[in-house]
Design brief:
9 helices, 30% helix
Length: 279
C-alpha cells in the first residue's frame, strides 16, 4: 500500500511515547489491511494480525522480535484501546488524502457528493450516535473526506471544513441535498473553482417560487435515465434553462429533474426544481 504508511504517520499519537512498542502508523495500516480482507469486528482484526504471514508483516513495517525469529504484532486489546483514543477526523484526513493521491487523472469534470449518515453500531459517550459528513466521488465511490458532525453543531457548519480537507476542487461538480442549499456554500464553491448542483426546496422559498414559475412545459428535455434503487423504479427527466434576474445563491443555471416513482405505484410524482452552477 504505497504511501499509506507516510500518510498515517501524520496522525497524532495519543499515547505517552515512553514504552510504546508498536508505531501508530503500523497499527493503523495493519487494521486497514484486516478490514480490506473482510474483517468486520475488532476481534476479527486481531485474528488477522496474529495470523498474517511474515513477508506481509515485513512489508507493513512491523519490527522483528530482538530475541525470537518472529515479528512483534499488536494484540487485539492494543488495537482496541488505540482506536478508541485516536483522533477520528485526523485519521479520516490521512486516509482521504491517500485515496485522493491514487485517483486516476482525468481532464473531464468529476462529481463529488456531500452527504451525512449516522453510523450503525457505533456510539460515543452517553450513547450519542456518531453522525458523519462525507465527500464521496461519484464514479469511483472513494471517500475523499469525512468529518464527525458532533452533537453541538450540524451538517451545515461542517460543509466548508469538510471540503477544506480536499486539496483541489477545480473542475469538480459538488452535489448535496437541500440542507446545503446555502448562499455561503455556493460562494465558497465558486471561490475554489468548483461547480455545484443544489436542490431547491422549502429552505429557499423565494427562489423555489421563482423556479416553479418558469415555463417548463415549453422547454425541451435534455436527458432521460431509467433505473432501480431503494425499492423504486427511477425515471429522471432533465430540463435546463438560462434565466436573467434569477434570485440565485450564486451565478447559476436552473434545471429541473423529475423524482423517482415507487415500483408498487409507478405513477409519476411532481417535478422538483434544482439549480446548478455553470459547468
Amino acid at each position: 500500500m504505497p504511501g499509506l504508511l507516510e500518510r498515517l504517520a501524520q496522525v497524532p499519537d495519543p499515547r505517552d511515547p515512553r514504552g510504546v512498542r508498536h508505531a501508530l502508523a503500523v497499527v493503523l495500516t495493519l487494521t486497514a489491511c484486516a478490514v480490506l480482507t473482510g474483517a468486520t469486528s475488532l476481534l476479527a482484526v486481531g485474528e488477522w494480525i496474529a495470523d498474517a504471514p511474515p513477508h506481509v508483516l515485513e512489508r507493513l513495517g512491523v519490527r522483528p522480535d530482538p530475541v525470537l525469529p518472529r515479528r512483534l504484532v499488536p494484540s487485539e486489546a492494543t488495537v482496541r484501546r488505540l482506536l478508541a483514543r485516536i483522533d477520528g477526523d485526523a485519521l479520516d484526513r490521512a486516509v482521504g488524502g491517500w485515496l485522493a493521491d491514487r485517483r486516476p487523472e482525468s481532464t473531464r469534470l468529476r462529481g463529488l457528493s456531500v452527504d451525512g449518515k449516522s453510523l450503525r453500531g457505533a456510539a460515543k459517550a452517553q450513547g450519542r450516535r456518531i453522525h458523519l459528513l462525507a465527500g464521496v466521488e461519484h464514479t469511483s465511490g472513494l471517500v475523499l473526506a469525512q468529518l464527525d458532525v458532533g452533537e453541538k453543531t450540524g451538517e451545515v457548519t461542517r460543509f466548508q471544513p469538510l471540503l477544506d480537507t480536499i486539496a483541489d476542487l477545480a473542475a469538480t461538480v459538488v452535489t448535496s441535498d437541500a440542507l446545503h442549499t446555502q448562499r455561503e456554500h455556493a460562494a465558497y464553491l465558486l471561490g475554489r473553482g468548483a461547480h455545484y448542483i443544489a436542490i431547491v426546496k422549502g429552505n429557499q422559498k423565494k427562489l423555489r417560487r421563482q423556479l416553479k414559475s418558469l415555463p417548463w412545459k415549453d422547454i425541451p428535455f435534455q436527458g432521460r435515465t431509467r433505473g432501480t434503487g431503494h425499492g423504486r423504479a427511477e425515471i429522471r427527466r432533465i430540463k435546463v434553462a438560462t434565466v436573467n434576474n434569477l434570485l440565485s445563491l450564486a451565478p447559476a443555471r436552473p434545471s429541473r429533474s423529475s423524482a423517482a416513482a415507487p415500483i408498487a405505484r409507478p405513477a409519476r410524482p411532481p417535478s422538483r426544481p434544482s439549480m446548478r452552477s455553470p459547468a
